[in-house]
Fold this protein.
Amino acid sequence: MKETRGFITILTGLYSFQDCIHFLAAIRKFHHEPIIVLIDQVPPILYPFLKVFKNVILKPAPKHENTVLASRLAKVSLYNASEFDKTIFLDSDICLLTDINDVFESLNEFDLLLTEDVQPDISKATNLLRGSQQENLDKVLQTLQSVGFPLQENDIQYNSGLIAFRKTEETKKLFSEFQRYFGIITEHQDKLLLRDQGAFATAIATVKPKMKVLPPTYNFLSKWKDAYKIDQEIKVLHCTYPYRPQYAKNITRSLYTRIFDKLAQLFLPDQVTNPWRQK
């Protein structure tokens, strides 16, 4: 039987709808594989805007009033949501600048491919804790360990905006642990921000999957561009559409996206001011 491969993204609420349209346009510029969109809190009347792109599969995401939490719950359920032998998950605010067939091909050898976070040192990951980053700097690891994360000082924080995986028992276990540790985050909202990297790092440290760390050119967060030292072409740009540089906007520019962007100004909320991001 021929091996299957495809993409997955997450769309929970209208704040990321424009991002998702351009995400689909970028994937279709370079790839023909099916794309699953885990979707919630989007009126079905808007589904045709997504289905304009060929071979798009809409599947329900876990429901929650907080669209950011719904998105996180969808991310920890990616293994079960995938219909493919090889899957590339990408956040919907990502724009491909070229094809990434090499990522699919690397899944012949590895179970998991991903990139390190801009701040890979887990002991300095103040982005995971509530409160002042400066005050939290010396107690990140202590706080994470206190809630039940068996992390050590040399463990790495990965960015979960790109996760490529193949269906194996080891990967299944990884996502099971990811889900379990994310449950700890939701139970300790007094100390932890609603982010998944801590749970993801802990799952990886626990399971130790056969994995490959890709360079930042495969998940380039333009917001932190000054933190990178790269001398290669950027393949995957991670940047929400309103802030995207023009060369990246040109990737997805078409008559359809131009018309959509005009309409978006009339009926979509401003994603930059999404109140759920402050929760």
